[in-house]
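hi! just following up on the protien thing from before. the input was this:
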Amino acid sequence: MRLVLQLFLFVSLTACSLPRVIVLNDALDSGQHNDLGVAYERRGEMDLAEREYRKAAKLDENWATPWFNLGNLYVGVGQWSQAEVFYRKALAREPRSAAVMNNLAWAALQEGRSVEALSWAQQAASLLADSPAVLDTLAEVHMARQETAWAQRIVARALELNPDKGVREKLEAKRQQLAEP
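and the predicted 3d structure came back as:
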């Protein structure tokens, strides 16, 4: 009988209790979400990377990096127009970002808009005149526009800056290509 009474008491107490609401808080800050996005991107998990970049951008509405990274994510899969959307969002947050302007130039060039690409590349180069990578993009734009003399000068300038091996090799190849008749 005692067991039945205890069982009755237990059932009646739990049946009448209020439902519990569990609230989960996101313990990660914007930087951690961005870093997680980078990690997912490196592993090839693009959907998860995009989700984390978007969370990072939402958590810190002044930080351009998550939008920039999202633009780079779309460049990686050849979706240039989508990349531009995110680069423009990054530029809205950081209007003087030479890196964003440089990547916008590259995306515009891939979309066949050389006039716009030239404008972005020139703006990036005016902010980072000593960046071989930025100068490489500017040279690429001039090459696309058949402005060989300009491209040659820019490549020579970029090589004078002693770029890292990868950029140096690209610039040397451009110099060879521009020297051919």
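The chain has ten helices and no strands.
The domain at 29-94 is CATH 1.25.40.10 (Serine Threonine Protein Phosphatase 5, Tetratricopeptide repeat).
cheers
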